[in-house]
Specification:
Layout (H helix, E strand, L loop, with lengths): L5 E10 L5 E9 L4 E5 L23 H15 L7 H12 L9 H18 L4 H6 L5 E2 L1 E8 L12 E5 L6 H21 L19 H14 L9 E5 L6 E2 L2 E4 L4 E4 H14 L2 E5 L7 H11 L4 E4 L7 H10 L4 E4 L1 H4 L2 H13 L3 E5 L9 H8 L3 E7 L3 H17 L4 E2 L11
Parallel strand pairs: 4-16, 5-15, 7-11, 11-12, 12-13, 13-14, 14-15
Antiparallel strand pairs: 1-2, 2-3, 5-6, 6-7, 8-9, 9-10
Bound molecules: 2-phosphoglyceric acid and magnesium ion.
Length: 425
């Protein structure tokens, strides 16, 4: 057995895909193995997420990096990187707050993931294999953004992510090929309409639309133009990110010039579900609208995946409450929303036991870090969300999944549409 005792932990400032500072952690073990990970950063953040610790200027990460080099390094040195739960428990105890406000979730998540990478390296395994521990795993069904929106596109439209899921794909490789066709068809539609304005934060086409519904309608046409049957072959997935424009039971859709109450917002999204080939909807109501989420799930939860992102913030406690409430039927898992690998895994375990969909997700501010691809595959989560089909920080992750699929060879099973928590009709 390799000696996986932690001998050195260091942090440094690096930069993300929006040119903003973020935290990288590096860990070295007694056996000589090293691991490295970088914290991502969200733009549309849930109010109850763990704290992304910033300096007094609101941007810098000097304090978060100092926490890695100081308090965290001192507390974790000598611990065993092979015991992830113990390490994460030590981070939680050292922080001592309910939301990583002291150390910063950007510091803790980088360290937690770096330790995981180092331990896998020590065992000579790619991270996904180390995580699977011999259990069967599937390549995740990807949801891939075609148009950006919301906080990722200067609020040009209200809906944040207009994505596709290649349901007819037989492999991850094929899912990407199908998505590439839709992505380029969408770009051609925008070009032909004289509306091509580049891309939004995650690489999706800039949403130059007159209404939110026009965006969904254009996505449907892009699927058709690429030669696919909407729904059967390539389906639509939306992240409404309603907390960005709704609170206290009021929803203000800037582009449509409408102000709706919770019922009205439910009806609006249910209308879209009736008219378009949508199989998944994330945060259709705001994070403070528990009744709205429950009503929406009662109305649509049998035929559509309903994902809690801001609503659940990768919290096992909130997943548990939402299972009891029937307020969603899927969880978005973002390690930096809770701040450790172990807490992310706890949220996944509860959701999976309830028969929910599980989607491991990137953030809008990303880097070359590939951890989430390994978590999604090694944990057999079933689904992954990375952003669009452009920009290096997104493509690096899609391409890593292709390498994993190749490494698995004959054992490479693709989760496909079975990853959706839908009742068979
Ligand atoms: C989301 C993510 C990714 P952000 O809302 O699901 O699209 O956005 O990282 O800005 O929270
Ligand atoms: Mg979201």
């Amino acid at each position: 057995m390799p000696d996986t005792t932690i001998t050195r932990i260091s942090g440094r400032r690096v930069w993300d895909s929006r040119g903003r500072a973020t935290v990288e952690a590096e860990i070295e073990l007694a056996c000589g193995a090293r691991g490295r990970a970088i914290a991502p950063a969200g733009a549309s953040r849930g109010a109850r997420e763990a704290v992304d610790l910033r300096d007094a200027d609101g941007l810098g990460v000097t304090v978060a990096v100092a926490n890695v080099n100081g308090a965290i390094a001192a507390a974790l040195a000598g611990m065993d990187a092979g015991k992830q739960e113990d390490l994460d428990r030590a981070l939680i105890a050292l922080d001592g707050t309910p939301n990583k406000a002291r150390l910063g979730a950007n510091a803790t998540v980088a360290v937690s993931l770096a330790a995981l990478h180092a331990a896998a390296r020590a065992h000579g395994l790619p991270l996904f294999r180390y995580l699977a521990q011999g259990r069967p795993m599937r390549l995740p069904l990807p949801e891939i953004q075609i148009f950006g929106g919301g906080a990722h596109a200067g609020r040009r439209i209200d809906i944040q992510d207009l994505m596709v899921m290649a349901l007819a794909a037989g492999s991850f490789d094929e899912a990407l090929e199908m998505t590439a066709r839709v992505y380029h068809a969408a770009g051609e539609l925008m070009r032909d309409a004289g509306k091509l304005r580049g891309v939004a934060d995650e690489g999706g086409w800039w949403p130059e639309f007159a209404s939110n519904e026009e965006a969904i309608e254009t996505l449907t046409r892009a699927i058709e133009r690429a030669g696919f049957v909407p729904g059967d072959e390539v389906a639509i997935s939306l992240d409404i990110a309603a907390s960005e424009f709704g609170a206290g039971g009021r929803y203000r859709l800037g582009l449509d010039g409408r102000s709706l109450d919770s019922d009205g917002m439910c009806e609006l999204v249910l209308g879209w579900l009736a008219r378009y080939a949508i199989v998944s909807v994330e945060d259709p109501l705001a994070e403070d609208d528990r009744e709205g989420m429950m009503r929406f799930t009662a109305a649509a939860g049998r035929r559509v995946q309903i994902v809690g992102d801001d609503y659940l913030t990768t919290s096992a406690a909130r997943v548990e409450a939402a299972i009891a409430d029937r307020a969603c039927n899927a969880v978005l898992l973002k390690p930096n929303q809770c701040g450790t690998v172990t807490e992310t895994r706890a949220a996944l375990d509860l959701a999976r036991a309830a028969g929910w969909g599980c989607i491991v997700s990137a953030r809008s501010g990303e880097t070359e870090d590939l951890s989430i691809v390994h978590l999604a595959t090694g944990w057999d989560a079933g689904q992954i969300k990375v952003g669009s089909f452009a920009r290096g920080e997104r493509m690096a992750k899609w391409n890593e999944a292709l390498r994993i699929e190749e490494m698995l060879g004959r054992d490479a099973h693709f989760a496909g549409r079975s990853a959706l928590p839908l009742k068979k009709s």
